Automatic annotation (TrEMBL), chain A:
Cited SUPFAM superfamilies: Folate-binding domain (SSF103025)
Stored InterPro entries: SoxG, SoxG_het, TrmE/GcvT-like
NCBIfam families (alphabetical): soxG
One BP term from GO: sarcosine catabolic process
Record GO terms (molecular function): sarcosine oxidase activity
Protein name, UniProt field: Sarcosine oxidase subunit gamma
Coiled coil: none
From TrEMBL, chain B:
Record protein name field: Sarcosine oxidase subunit alpha
Region (Disordered): 483-512
GO biological process: tetrahydrofolate metabolic process
Domain Aminomethyltransferase C-terminal as annotated: residue spans: 904-988
InterPro entries the record matches: 2Fe-2S-bd_N, BFD-like_2Fe2S-bd_dom_sf, FAD/NAD-bd_sf, FAD/NAD-binding_dom, GcvT/YgfZ/DmdA, GcvT/YgfZ_C, GcvT_C, GCVT_N
Family: Belongs to the GcvT family.
Keywords per UniProt: Oxidoreductase
Length: 183, 996
């Protein structure tokens, strides 16, 4: 039986001249679902102005929000702020759903001169069309992920826990493969 | 240096010799050689044996269309590759190659007896020969055919190489880096446009590599090429070599296979052997050029007989004379230049034989000036030589009359039947072809893809024509991409435009019925086979193809299709366009399984989802089983235990004290919103409106057809918040089904779904000591019958962790499911494990879980149901809220056949001889009825049960609910087992054990 990791802990997974992939420390994460009319009230309660175009992001007060669907957002927050945000959301008098998903997934940070190329190993989406400062829900190696583009060659990828080792293995193969390519 | 290497010609680097072996013998080539060019430089033409007749064969082409020169290549253990085209494999120091289809040796091959017996192996040979006696098929014919079939030897060792894949998005993909492709790139390129040129050869240039005599814009062709490539690269155009566009799929998706290391003498670390590129291109230019057709005459397959264009490539690109005394036979102008080039390189061309009565004056003049004899209006009727052509018999033709043959001695025979555009990728787009009468070939016509064809690929001939057309097509796609494109005017000197006529098999003065005039070299199909197929009634070209196997070899008829069509059309007496062309399918050239598999092999074959508790199970010796994408602990054997023993122990300890089980894989969905209860009422069969907060209920989910789809326990955590659980395998499917209804049927409901499967680690504790074990760790609720009864749920703290605690039982014992945030699961498990030692806690796996639930008659969706079982069939009518106005499947359940008597219903079975039944075994009422018996159901679950004191089974049986106590029969290979129909609850039907 393989003794491969079945869960990942924060730290560097692979570091080559092409790309460096690291598991990020645990963070707070909420899934917010609501109709448009509820957005101003929810934004005020959560302390972030919720973007309305899919893929758009907003940040403020230590939290980040990304719009993933016409009625769907993921909110990132420090772990210790989750309870406060859940309570703040509960006070909003508009129908909505706010669910703690902090424990559901983890985040990889992917950086380095070939970071964007590394994603092309298994992401069918055209990486070039994701503007810096935006994000997309997409697929990597068969698993649904949320990809955040923080810089030309700096990304974060949110992955459900049980898919992460599989994806991380490919990241390792890919980072070495890219580093071995003749210039 | 060998007498066939021509100094000063070619692009190989003679200062860098490369040694390799072929059939154990060492040869020396030069850096840049292919195996074929290097062997030809050593005077070796014999490179293989044909598939059916084992006839000696040499390279006939210089590119990927090569049908004959298939070799094995090897670089050590596991790295043997059969059927490599010697024309495409680059040599490297130490490369080992071997010929195929020969025994004991390439020069003396036993299988060649087939050649002598060739009259037996006519078209449809298999169909005619192996028809009778019927009983011979399995034992004699099929093993014989299988042993004889196949090219080369399949490797037996695991492939140690890594394969890779990537996605690539571009604005313009150009297939083919010849003059048309390069010109298209130059004309289309613009700031910000992503342009990719792909070429299967080791270096870009296409036909320019074979035509150094041309001068483009005042520069020698190769200098122009260098400048052009540099300019394109500087402009950001990506040029990919050794990369074959193998398939063209919907919406401009193309697959490219890149050969990364096959040309390297040593394998670099971390580098895949091949890489599959999945390309999405906004526009595509196909500039793949044209393929030369052989002429069809008796003996046209002898080593040394090859395409004239190939000979020109060997000379000009590789610096190799394919012979010192060649003869050219042609029906197209292009072959004349091959003769001229060879003559100028020092060969003595014995004759240029043209089937046409008239040829351009300048060609005649040049032949005369070079001293090459010319014979017009001639046919070729035979070749001689055993392992190498040594002579050719040519005859004058006058009208239909073929004159007397004359022998010409030669050591190579260069033929050209004209050129046919490479239509393969275009055909993959389901593009329509149009017949061109002048060129007597099909040309690309219309396609629904964003795709244009440039150059020889649409019948244009000559470098200037290709450059001009490429530029025009480049501007066309630039316009489609919103750019003006770049002007281009080129002038080409020493261009070699030309034309020709198309031929069927060449006329002969001998019996054409005895001619071995090959059309498909790889499958050994002759012109006579095609005519025979038509005589025997084949009318469609698709039937002719299958009857003769013409075009069905690994080269997919790159050389044979048009010749085959011309001959079949002639035999049918119909024009070629009415006969039509067979379909080309991907891949364009044979592609390794490795390239298709990419990274998906070995440990990375498929995602294996593991829970946070999985490492504990692994450390404790669990045996795992896959459940959907998950791997789950099946049982935990102790030293010396087999599965049965381990499972019995796990069941016993659970029922006697307490068992712990990892239920984290259960699907979980958080249903939140003011309309959550309305949504639940509509989705599930059960009523939810009156379920209080802090209570949970078993839920049954149907499809709209009324059949059971999924089930699970659902807790109401708050007025507008449900914690739904689903089966492990059904999680994603249920989520999708719910979203589907929500988005399409009930968009008005204020309720939202969030997958929380992986938010929670779920640990089940079951057994009489479960509450005793858990209670001291729980804060927020007392685990008593009053404070936390069966089917209660609460948010509380367990061992200091935030938890959702459910009191549920899938075993019939006192049971709890503790949900904690996923990463905490392992820690909680270990705390419970340690605390449970005083009770003799046992970790149990899915197998014991199955037994424990079956003893209580709890179904497993997908095992005891198969998509045709209603709640009533399963004996679960109690779960259907009959007063509810609607729910998914309510209408389906009302269909007459779903309410009819005699449906298969879930019952218990107890065997009379106390043996354990086999799951899946069929059930009959009367064991004495004649075969085939009427089968009335099957066993769905079957286990040894210590709690019941005997083996138990669940089964679906026709009208089973009305047959309690009746005996049914289960015929097995060795005997028939009698079993009594019972209820499905085998243990504690009063549920007394659930009480704390």
């Amino acid at each position: 039986m393989s003794m491969e990791i079945s869960s990942l802990t924060p730290g560097v997974l692979v570091d080559t001249p092409a790309a460096r992939v690291a598991v990020q420390p645990a963070a707070g994460r909420l899934s917010l679902r609501a109709r448009k009319a509820a957005l101003p009230a929810l934004g005020a309660a959560l302390g972030v102005s919720l973007p309305t175009r899919i893929g758009q992001r907003a940040a403020g007060g230590g939290i980040e929000a990304i719009c993933l669907g016409p009625d769907e957002w993921t909110i990132l927050t420090p772990a210790d702020a989750v309870a406060g945000l859940l309570a703040a959301g509960a006070g909003v008098d508009h129908p909505h759903s706010l669910v703690d998903i902090s424990a559901r997934e983890l985040t990889l940070r992917i950086q380095g001169p070939r970071a964007a190329d590394l994603l092309t190993l298994a992401c069918p989406r055209d990486i070039d069309t994701i503007p810096v400062g935006e994000g997309r829900r997409t697929v990597f190696d068969g698993a649904t992920v949320v990809l955040w583009r923080d810089g030309e060659n700096s990304f974060r990828m949110d992955i459900w826990n049980s898919f992460a080792p599989h994806l991380a293995r490919l990241m390792g193969i890919g980072a070495r493969e890219l580093a071995a390519e003749p210039a | 240096m060998s007498q066939y290497r021509v100094p000063g010609r070619g692009r190989v680097d003679l200062s860098r010799p490369v040694d390799f072996t072929f059939d154990g013998r060492s040869y020396r080539g030069a850096q840049g050689d292919s195996v074929a060019s290097a062997l030809l430089a050593n005077g070796v033409h014999l490179m293989g044996r044909s598939f059916k007749y084992h006839r000696p064969r040499g390279a006939i082409a210089a590119g990927s269309e090569e049908p004959n020169a298939l070799i094995g290549t090897s670089r050590g253990a596991g790295r043997f590759e059969p059927n490599t085209r010697a024309t495409m494999q680059e040599i490297w120091q130490g490369l080992e190659t071997t010929s195929q289809n020969k025994f004991p040796s390439l020069k003396w091959d036993v299988g060649a007896v087939n050649d002598a017996a060739y009259m037996l192996f006519s078209a449809g040979f298999y169909y005619k020969t192996f028809m009778w006696p019927k009983s011979f098929w399995n034992k004699v014919y099929e093993p014989f055919i299988r042993a004889a079939a196949g090219l080369g030897t399949a490797p037996t060792e695991a492939d140690p190489d890594q394969y890779a894949s990537r996605y690539l998005h571009c604005d313009l993909l150009i297939v083919g880096a010849g003059p048309a492709g390069l010109a298209a790139a130059r004309a289309a390129m613009a700031e910000g446009l992503r342009i990719v040129i792909v070429d299967e050869n080791a270096e870009p240039g296409g036909s320019l590599l074979s035509e150094p005599q041309a001068r483009i814009d005042g520069l020698p062709a190769w200098d122009w090429l260098d400048d052009e490539l540099a300019a394109l690269k500087a402009a950001g155009v990506r040029i990919m070599t050794r990369t074959t566009a193998i398939g063209y799929y919907h919406y401009n998706m193309l697959a490219l296979c890149e050969r990364v290391t096959d040309h390297l003498p040593s394998l670099p670390a971390d580098t895949p052997r091949e890489r599959m590129w999945r390309v999405r291109a906004r526009q595509v230019v196909l500039a793949q050029g044209a393929l030369e057709k052989p002429l069809v005459f008796h003996g046209n397959d002898r080593p040394g007989v090859m395409l004239a264009g190939a000979a020109q490539t060997y000379l000009n690109r590789y610096g190799v004379k394919v012979g010192n005394a060649p003869v050219v036979v042609t029906s197209h102008d292009s072959a004349w230049y091959a003769g001229f080039d060879l003559q100028e390189a020092g060969a003595r061309v014995q004759a240029i034989v043209d089937t046409r009565p008239h040829v351009r004056d300048d060609l005649m003049d040049q032949a005369r000036a070079l001293g090459i004899p010319v014979r017009l209006s001639h046919t070729v009727t035979a070749t001689s030589g055993r392992l190498r052509v040594s002579g050719v018999r040519v005859n004058p033709v006058s009208g239909a009359a073929v004159g007397a043959g004359q022998q010409i001695t030669c050591d190579a025979l260069l033929m050209s039947g004209g050129w046919t555009p490479s239509l393969h990728l275009f055909s993959h787009t389901q593009g329509k072809l149009a017949w061109d009468d002048d060129l007597t070939t099909f040309l690309p016509h219309e396609t629904r893809e964003a795709c244009v064809i440039a150059g020889a690929g649409r019948g244009l001939w000559g470098i200037e024509a290709a450059l001009t057309d490429g530029a025009a097509r480049g501007r066309e796609v630039a316009a489609a991409l919103g750019h003006p494109g770049n002007p281009a005017a080129v002038s080409v000197e020493n261009d070699r435009p030309g034309s020709g006529v198309s031929q069927k098999e060449l006329p002969t003065d001998r019996n054409p019925g005895r001619a071995k005039a090959f059309v498909d070299y790889q499958n050994d199909v002759t012109a006579k086979d095609l005519r025979l197929a038509v005589r025997e009634g084949m009318r469609s070209i698709e039937h002719v193809k299958r009857y003769t196997t013409n075009g069905m070899a690994t080269d997919q008829g790159k050389m044979s299709n048009i010749n085959g069509l011309n001959i079949a059309a002639d035999a049918l007496g119909r024009p070629a366009p009415q006969v039509g062309l067979t379909t080309f399918r991907p891949p364009y050239t044979p592609t390794t399984f490795g390239a298709f598999a990419g990274y998906q092999r070995g440990a990375h074959f498929e995602v294996t989802r593991k829970t946070p508790i999985d490492p504990w199970a692994e450390a404790h010796g669990a045996v795992f089983e896959p459940v959907g994408q998950w791997r789950r602990a099946r049982y935990f054997p102790q030293p010396g235990e087999d599965m049965d023993t381990a499972v019995r122990r796990e069941c016993r300890q659970t029922r006697e004290s307490v068992g712990i089980f990892d239920a984290s894989t259960l699907g979980k969905i958080e249903v939140v919103g003011p309309d959550a209860v309305t949504f639940m009422e509509r989705m599930y069969t059960n009523p939810w409106a009156k379920l209080g907060v802090g209570r949970c209920r078993y839920g049954l989910l149907l499809g709209d057809d009324g059949y059971i789809r999924d089930d699970g326990v659902i807790g109401r955590m708050a007025e507008g918040r449900f914690h739904v659980t689903t089966t492990t395998g059904g999680a994603a499917r249920v989520m999708n089904m719910m979203e589907d209804y929500l988005q399409t049927e009930w968009p008005d409901l204020d309720v939202w779904l969030t997958s929380t499967t992986e938010q929670w680690s779920t640990i089940a504790l079951n057994g009489p000591n479960a509450a005793k074990l858990l209670a001291p760790l729980v804060e927020g609720v007392e685990l008593t019958e009053d404070a936390f009864p069966h089917m209660a749920c609460i948010e509380c703290t367990v061992a200091g962790m935030p938890a959702r605690l459910f009191r549920v039982s899938f075993t019939g014992e006192i049971g709890f499911e503790v949900n904690v945030p996923a990463p905490l699961g392992r820690k909680l498990w270990e705390i419970l494990w340690d605390a449970g030692q005083q009770y003799g806690i046992v970790a149990y796996g899915t197998e014991a879980m199955h037994v424990l639930r079956a003893e209580k008659g709890y179904i497993i969706v997908g095992q005891d149901t198969d998509g045709t079982v209603t709640p009533y069939d399963a004996g679960m009518g109690w779960a259907v809220g009959k007063k509810k106005p609607d729910f998914v499947g309510k209408r389906g359940l009302a269909r007459p056949d779903l309410a009819a008597k005699g449906r298969k219903q879930l019952v218990g079975l107890l065997t009379e001889d106390r043996s354990k039944l086999e799951e899946g075994a069929q059930i009959v009422f009367d064991p004495n009825q004649p075969i085939p018996m009427k089968m009335v159901g099957h066993v769905t679950s079957s286990y040894h049960s210590d709690a019941a004191g005997r083996p138990i089974a669940l089964a679906l049986v026709e009208g089973g609910h009305d047959r309690m106590g009746e005996v049914v029969h289960i015929p097995m290979p060795d005997r028939t087992i009698a079993a009594k129909i019972t209820g499905t609850v085998f243990v504690d039907p009063e549920n007394t054990r659930l009480k704390i």
